[in-house]
Structures are given as structure tokens and as C-alpha cells.
Amino acid sequence: MDNINVLIIEDVSSESDALVKVLKENNYTIVGVATSFKEAISMFYKKTVDVLVIDVFLDGKPDGVTFAETINDIPGALKPFVFLTSSKDRQIFERAKLTSPFSFLLKPFNELEVLYAIEMAVEKFYAQTNGFFSEDQDTVISKEYLFVKKKNSLKKVLIANVLYIEVEERYCNIVTENEKFVILISLTKIIELLDADKFCRTHRNFIVNSQKIEEILVSENLIILKGNHKIMLSDKYKDLIKRFHVLK
Amino acid sequence: MTKIKLFIISILLSYTSPFFSKEQSNRDLLSVEIKKKAREFKKEINFNKAHLFFLKKNWDSTLVYSMKQLSFNNHDNELTDYCHYFRAFSFKQKNLLNEAKNEFNAVSNKFRFYYKVKMYLGEISLELRDFSKAIRYFQEIEKLTNDDAFDFKRSNVSHNLGLCYLHLNKFDRAEEYLFKSAELQQLEKDTLLLISSYMDIANLYYVQYKDRQAIPYFEKAYLLSKKVKDFELKRKAAINMAVVEENRKNFPLALVYRKEYESWKDSLNDQNKIWAIAELEKKFTVKQKEKEIKVLEAENQLKIAERNGLFYSSVLLLILFGAGVYFYKQKIKHNKIILSQKEELDELNATKDKLFSIVSHDLRSSVSALKSSNVKLFENLKRKNFTELDKLLHNNSAIANGTYNLLDNLLNWALFQTKQLYFKKESLHLFSVIQQIEFNYKSFMLDKNISFENTVSKNIFVFADLDSLKIILRNLLDNAIKFSEENGSILIYTRTSNNSFCDLVIEDSGLGMDKNTQEELLNETVLLTKKKNNENIGTGLGMHLCKTMIKKNNGKLNIESQENIGTKIIVVLPKFKNHG
Fold first, then answer.
1. How far apart are the first and last CA of chain B?
2. Could you tell me the fold of the domain covering B420-574?
3. Which of the residues A59, A99, B240, B553 has an alpha carbon 20 to 30 A from that of B157?
4. Which residue of B has its CA nearest to A93?
5. Number of CB atoms found within 10 A of residue A35's CB
6. What integer pLDDT is reported at residue B23 of this predicted model?
7. CA distances from A88 to A46, B133, B323, B412 (A)
8. Do B440 and A110 touch (CB under 8 A)?
9. Does A160 contact chain B (CB < 8 Å)?
10. pLDDT by residue (tens digit) across A192-224?
11. Where 4-aspartylphosphate occurs along the chain (chain A) (predicted)?
């Protein structure tokens, strides 16, 4: 599991310092603090950013919104972001609203509010409402990452690294090449959200990353994955063999 | 000399008379056939027009349209024949005999009425005094069977043949044919033609100087002529008698006849004159009528113009009236709106003034409390009395927090009043939001040693605007702390009332309130009374804001309270529905 990379765009150092402190305490990685529009643009493209925290006003101008609008116009570039604002000035809000999906945090804010706002931004951005907060789910799935809520923090897992997923009632055991951990999500949801070309079900309780398959032993109903993980292959899901070109 | 003069008169009569009667008799068959053809060739406009004019005896127009038909369309032989026939007949009627002859000759012998063509050719030849040719034509017709298919009068043919022979001085044959025609005419009861036949027979004898045989016929003709109305015939019969008597040297009688002849001539003239006068009168009356019609038309136009003018002006007036009424109503409406707005404004202004005074009073008192507290702080700092310092700082922070809350509410209230508050409902995790609010109050609750518990179900998502929900929760929690004694407890929990709403309960073990206060709090109108607990800052603005925000989030507010036991503030909020 990796930390979430946050880019902060805030011109007042006292405020950005407080933010950095809060986020670091909660295991977020701060990739940078930009104080102007230009700096923000260059940092955004140089670094790997998962979440943005943007102050609406930079040096008295609504450059924060302009920045959001700029990255909003580039397809695929946009990341989940949170606007920071000290007033609910309707005009600015109407403008900021156009950059969707859009979350904001009203100053002054406490630690919990920042964390909640970031989580909400991720949820909304990947259109998986209530992905982090209910008792039976703590994960939001994007194309590249699984975002998992661990206590007050968020973690990410590169989906490409996942070997297989074992489902146990409400939990899913995620097994990657290096680690193993538990997330909360229902089977139907995870199947729906994962790329069907890469992940396929081999058993009532198993979902396998097809790119990690090393061997299929049809007679023994077994699939052998990278790292010598042995996974059951039940008759019901044997059709998946047809997806591979078999050498005879 | 006299006999020759007599002779000429009789010819003129003989050939004019035939086609009066003939036309009437043979029209039937021919016109029926023409109409049939016209229907058959509906598309030939020119032919149709030609046939119509032909039937109406409008010869000039017939000539024009049949010409057009001939020049444009030559496909159908039958039509061509009809057209030539129309033209020939029309020329003949207009006495252009050579043209008529040419047109008749143009008609092909397959033509249904070719016998008529021959008949007319015979007549034309007779008129052009080409008697032998005429005889040939007539004899051909005579040979035809006496059938209904050929509707012409045999008597005419015989008569005409008789005339031809008479002119050729072949008296025997002439006599034969004339008698035959007279016989037939007697059978047909055609008195007019019979008279001319008698006269021709008389002439026949007279030319041969068979006076004795001639005279009875002249007399017969004369007697018969008295029965008819034809002046021309009467005149001719009379002059014939006059000539006969003159030749017999019976001058008195001849004179009588001549006088009669003159009188018929006069009456003929008179009649012509009468006709002419009648025609003139007719024309005059027609003109008169036309004039009247014109005058009437002009009058009508005037009347129509007048009526239209009246109509338009009345419509205009009606529209003006309608517009007037509409604008008047609009004005009244506007006035009403303005009046209600004025009242609303007055009320708002009064509220604002009151609020302003209370807020400024509160701010003043809290800031003065801070000031005096600061003085104490300085004193204690000098004396290095740190325990007292700590106490004073806590006190200061509580005052600052209270003042901040007041100002925050004021700001939100102002934003709400000016409709500048951004409002967006979304799915919110109620537990997390309460946690966030609680976070700010932890230290105060610790100061008062209040136990706090948030047992809201983590599976509840409400559909509300985040910031307004925070305002609501902040104020309610603030109140709960404010009205709690030391060592009290505050509980926040939910009880689900139904599928679409959840009840959020904020329960404290504080002062509680009586029924009146509860009702006052729930009252819609702005409530700005100083609270009993005078130590605490409060304007009622917080509660008012709560009520407004709850309403805007489609929620409800309820209060359950008992004095000195505690209060339950119940906020009913709509659940987020799509959460499955």
C-alpha cells in the first residue's frame, strides 16, 4: 500500500504549513506546495499527484479556480481536488461549480474536516458515492488504483500489482506480489468496477488478474500465478480458458 | 319583260326558303352527333369551343376556333371533317359561297354527314347558277334510301331539282319534280314551302305561256299566303297576282294586287323599322340599366368603405380599451406587490434593527469581558500565578469561541438573507460530519467535564448541504454545552423514523425548558429575546438560523424537554436514497 500524493496550492504559508502538518500526521505524502498559478501548473505536470488541495484565491485573484479550469480542459489530466475558500461567495462558487466534480472546504477548518473533504473529493471524482464511509465498504476503485480508507487516512494500491482477490463474506483479501491485506467491498461491486478484460472469476470466491497467470492445470482444477500462488478453478468458470490462445 | 322579272323573284324565294325548315329538322341528328364528338374529344379545347359556337350559331367565332383546331391538330380525320363542315356551313351562312364550296369539298367522303355536304354543295351550285352540277348533286342525294339515318326533306331535294330544270328550261322534268315536291310538302304540311312550290309551278306554266294552267296555281299560292305571317311570301304572291292580272289586262284588279303588294312591302319595312326601333330602345334601356348598375356599384363601394372604416375604428377602439384595462390591472397588481414588498421590507428592517442592537450589545459585553479578563491576565502574569493564568486563558478562549460563533452565525444569516449562500445537496456521512463538529468542542466539554457520546449509525447517509448541516449541528451542540451543568452528558444518536427520513437526536442533561419556551423556539417568526441564562451570549439568531437551514434541507425540527432534566432536540433529515 502506498501513500496518497497531495499537491497543495496555497499562497499563505501559515495555512499551508497547518495543512501539511495535518496531512503528514495522517500519512499523506505532500509532493509540493505551490504558491502561484504558474508554479502549480509546473508542479502538477512534473509530479505524480493523486489529490489536489486548491485555495480559490491566490494573491487576491481567483487563480485557484483558473487552475482547476485549466486542468479540467485537458482530457485525462484532472485529478480529485478540494477547493479551499474562506467565503461562500456565490459568484466564485458558480464559476468553480463548472469544474466538475467539485468539493470545497470552508476556512477555518479542523483536521477531520480536511480529511473528510479529501475522501469526499475522491469518492465524487470516481463517481462512487459513499465508497469510504459505510460499514460494508471502504474502497474506491479507479482505473489504476484501489483507494482504501485506513482509519483516518487513505491508501492506494496499484491494481496492476494485484495477483488475485479472495472474497470472504463482506471482505476481500487482496494479494499482491509483496503484500496481502483486507478491504471492505462487496463481490458484485468489485467485479463491476474492475476491468473485466484483466480480472476474471475462477471460483465462487476468487478473482484472478489474468496477466499474472503462469499455468492452468485443467485436470487438477488449479491455476498457478506468479509467485507460485495456487488458485482454485471451478467447473462453472472454466470458460475463461477460451480467452487464451492455447498451444497444442 | 314582265314574265322574266316575275321569274327572278321566284328563284330568289325558292332557294332561300329550303334551309329554314331543313335546319330545324336535321339539327337534331347532327347536333346530337356533334355533342357526342365534343365529349369524346374533351381535351381538344379549340374543337370544343368551335362546336359550342356552332351550336349557338355564332359563325365568326366558329370560323376562328375551327381554324385553330385545323392548324394545331391534324391527327384525327373525323375532327378535321367536322371542322371543315363547321367552316363550310359558317361561310355559307355568311353568303361567302365560293369559300363554302371549297370547305365542303375538303370534307372527306367518309364523313358521317357527307350527304348533307352534297346537299349544300347542290344548293351552292344552284345559287351560283351552275344548274347541271346542282342537278348532279341533288340526284345523288335523291338516290339515297328514305331512311331515318338520312334526315333531310325529300321535298326540298325535289323542289331544288325542279328549280334547276326550270332554269335549264327542261320544263317536263321541272314539272315532274315540282309536283312531287308539292305533294310531299302537302304531306308534311309545310305551308310556307308549299306556297313557293305553287308559285314555282305557276311560273313554270307561265314561262311556257300556259296561262290557264298557271293562273290557278298563282291563285292557290296567293290564297295560302293569306294564312301565313311571312310578309315576304305575301308580298311575292301579291306581286305575282298583280303581274298576272296586268298581263290579262285586268288593270283594276292588278292595281288592287299591286296596292296589296305595296302594303306588304310597307309593312315589311315597318316591321323592319319597328325591329330597329325596338333594338334601339333595347340598347337604350340596356345602357340605362348599365348606368344604374354602375351607380349602384359605386354606392355599394362607398357603403363598404364606410362600413370597413367603422369596423376598423371600432376594433381599434376595442384594442385600446383592452390594452387600457390590461395596463390598469397590471398597475394594480404591481401596486399590490410593491405594497406587500414594502411591508416585508419594513418587517425585515425592524428585525435587522433589533438584531443589530442585540448583536452589538452582545459583542460589546463579550469584548469588555475579554478586556477585563486581559487586565487580570497581566496582573497574574506579573505575579507569576500560573494556575490562575491557565484558568483565565481558558475563559478567554471560551469567550472568543462564543463571539466567533455569533459572528459566524451573523455572516451566514446575512449571506442567507441576501441569497448569496451557496447551497448544494449531496450524500453526507452523518457520523463523520458530527465527528468534525465535535472536534472543535472537545476542549470546552472537557472544561465542563461533560461526557459526550456519538452513537450515530455509520451506515446513515443524509441528503443535505454540507455547510448548512454543519451550521445546524454547530449551533445545536453549542446550545447543548451552553445549557449543560458541569459533569453533564450529551448524547447524539439517530432513530430511524421511516425509509426516507432519519431522526437525529441531540440529548443533553441540562436546564431544560418549559412548554412556552419550546413553542416560542419552534415558532416560525424570528425570535430575539434575551435568554434566562444571562451569563451566556445568545441572541436567538443561532436557533433561527438552524430552523431556516433545516427547512431549506427539507428537514424538520422538534423539541422534547423537561425542566431541570434535560432537552432532546430532534432534527428530521432526508436520507440519501441511492445508497444501496
1. 140
2. Heat Shock Protein 90 (3.30.565)
3. B240
4. B422
5. 17
6. 44
7. 32, 125, 46, 9
8. yes
9. no
10. 889 888 898 888 889 999 888 888 888 888 888
11. 55
